[in-house]
Each structure stands twice: as structure tokens, then as C-alpha cells.
Sequence to fold (498 residues):
Amino acid sequence: MTDLVSHFDLDVTGERSALGGLVVTGITLSSKQVQPGDLYVGLAGVHAHGAQFAGDARAKGAVAIVTDARGQALAARSGLPVLVTPDPRASLGALSAWVYGTAEYPPTLFGVTGTNGKTSVSYILEAILRQLGILAGISTTAERRIGDLAMTSALTTPEATEVHGLLARMAEAKAEAVVIEVSAQALTRHRVDGIVFDVVGFTNLTHDHLDDYGTMQAYFEAKVPLFTPERARRGVVINDGEWGVRLARRAAIPVVTLSTYPGRPADWYAALLRETIDETRFILSGPDDQSLTTSIPVLGRHMAENAALAIVMLVESGIELSAIKNVLDRDGGIRVYIPGRAERIENSGPAVFIDYGHSPDAFTSTLDSLRRVTDGRIIMLFGADGDRDPSKREEMGQIAARLSDVVVITDFHPRTEDPAAIRRVLVDAARAAVPGREVHEVADPRTAFRTALGLATADDVILYAGPGHEDYHEVGGEHLPYSARDDARHALHEFGWL
Fold:
């Protein structure tokens, strides 16, 4: 403990000599998750200060608390040694790296950022690494996984204490590579501090998270630090959009670019060859006449783009394209399962897809792809997050009406907002965008899916956008059990199609 105090120049309440025999074996922000030997970090929160729970942390076996000046007073009677630093959140990554020794752990680290596609790229990276015979850990919105050990995710990118703890567990499992999905919030809230990625990738930047950042420019600026030497060694940027072009110019590390647009200046190009409801085939070409033709078992041009980004990131990490080509040729393509991302629920009736997309751009990408492979109608079922960026709701309703044939609007995580008010914005936007478009408003998601199913024929497609892999429905601050994937299977069985 004295080494830690000296290394971070922490102020100590009481005698430093009392720290001599203390050994720190872990670090956590949650007093409920403290394990014996942990260093507890008490942060100021919206409703409470973590230092208020120092006594609970001590009872569970915490050996000390790190906090700020305000927390110092709150933790004074806890019986724990109190270590004080002006901004404990800003120190969290470095503290966690020191406690877990992650700077000494040498896996190849991949980081993926962007508005849409982060989870898909992360899963594709892990899948190809596995096909190459490389054990990889993964941390995404959907799950954290080391080999066959999987854990449910709560945040797109976990807090720094959890990230470094995961890296330590991955070291124990002898993982040779780690893939981490990196949100803008992870960068601005210090969740990936203390980590230097070997290769980082950028998918896109589209309308989302303006409740956090206010403007697209501010949202973009939150992403830029990932492409600096303090965060990463090399980068790959999809420059199909203006934000990608800007990022490639702003990057302070070596960057290669990838495009799906012929004629756009880029180092690598990906071109769609064939698109079916179950598979997307593409060709990737790059410097020195390198090329690779393969497929991914997921619908959509955007999925080919995601796969191409993953492959170029692997090449930038030092893996030869020829080695990737050999294993993909051997296996008949990329063998990947991406939970809740255009995930098809097999049945004998209409094609049913459960998707996590909940932004205008995500709606557009998936609906455009479905239109190209669908003979019948597209029935779209969706809602909008409560307590999240309301500025995108109207555009979501407009896109759904323009790009599908039937719209069913339901509740999706209303949280503390009035769900009827959220639905009204979506319904009004859909009807105004395409007068006469068939629009249904059904509050309960279970009933809403059955409404969509009752409208469908065997030639139609149902896209249920929003819930993806999630297994809850958040209403009034309460998480109610609900899995769209499971409910879809139950409903299809009820209708005799499964």
C-alpha cells in the first residue's frame, strides 16, 4: 500500500505507518462488489457520494478508500485508511492498471469506436482470431467473454476498474488478444485510461448521443483522443463519411483508410458481390494488389463494411492477409454469431429479424439491405429510448415510414418519461413523412410483435429494431424481464410458424 501511495502521491488521513502491512489485491467503485483486499474508490455521483458507503466497503473487506476532499470527510468514521486525490475518476485507469499489473500484460489490444457497428466489428474480430487459432477476450455492449466464460454487459465500455480487472483475468486465461468496444462516453469518462491499444478502428459517426454531447462536433471531438499516441499505436478509419475523412486527418498516429465507395481516396476498398437474406459476400482489396473474397453470415452491405474493417485491423496488427484468406477459404467464410444484430429467428413463416439498431442511420442501413432481398412487404416494429437523445426520434419515425411498408410503434425503455408521449412523436413523424402509410401504435411490446406477426404473410419480413440482445424492458427505473428474441419465438410458435 505504501508503494501505491508514493507512486500516485496520495494524501493520507492519519499515520502512513498504518499502511505498511496492507496489501491491495483488487479495486472497485461499488461498495456492493467489494472483495477482501480491494481498494474502494469513492466517487461523487449524481445522487450520492461513494464515500458515504465506506463503512459498507470496510465490512466486506476493503483495505482502504481513495476519494476526493469531500469524500475524505464522509469516510472519516469508516475505519478505513483514507487516501485523497483531487480527481479520483481521472486517476482511476492508472490506479487500476497499477493494482492489476495490466501494463505488464502483453496481448494484442484492439479498440473499436463509432456510432454504429462497434459490436459487430468486435465480434467479427474475435471470430476471425478464433479461426486463426488465437485465443481472444472480448468486451462489448452484449457481453464480456474470455474463451467460453461469458458475462452480461451493463455498459458499452465498463468502468476502468472492471476493464483492467477483465484484462487481468484474460491474462490468467492466456488470451493472446483482447477486443474492446470503446464508446465516446468511455473516453470522456476515463473508462479506458491506462490502456494503449495496438490497433483502433472507426466505423462511422451519425446522429446519436446528443443528449450527452450537444452537437455532432462535440460528439466527434470525444472520439478523436482514441487516435492519439496516449491511447493507441495504429488506426483504421472508414472514410465513407465526412467524419471519417476528418478523423483520418486529425489522427496523431499512423492511420490507413477503408472505403466502400469506388473512386474515393483510400488505402483499402471493400465491394459488395452478393447479398442474400442470410449472407453477404464481398471482396476486399488493398495495397500491393492484395485481395480477399469472403462472406459473412449476416444480412447487409454495412455488415460487409464491418467485416472489412475487422480484417484490415488484423492486418495492421501484423497478421498477413494471406493467412486470414487461407482460414476463411478453409472455413467457407467468417464464422460469427453476433447476438441481436440483424439476428434472424428461423421459422416457416415471414423472415423475422431482431436488431439492436436504435438510431436513424442504423434504421436506414438495415431497411435498405432488407429491401434489396425482400419480395414481400417490410413490417417494421420499433420504439425510442426514454431519457435518451430525443432529437433523433422524429427522424427515426420518418425513416421507418419511408423505407418500410407497415410501421408498428411500441414502447422501448421509456424509463422515467411518459411512454405515450414518446410514441406520439414517432407516430406523428411516420404519418407526416408518408401520408397514408399504414401505422399502428401498440404500447405493449409483446402485443406489438403479435400485431406485426398478424399482419404478415410468409413472403414478408418483420424487422424488430431496438431491443437486440437485451433481456429487460426499463420502465419507471425498474428493469422488467423481456427478451425480444425469446418472445418472438414464443409468438411464432403461437402462430404455428415455429
Notes: The mean pLDDT is 94. The domain at 102-331 is CATH 3.40.1190.10 (UDP-N-acetylmuramoyl-L-alanine:D-glutamate ligase). The longest strand covers residues 268-275.
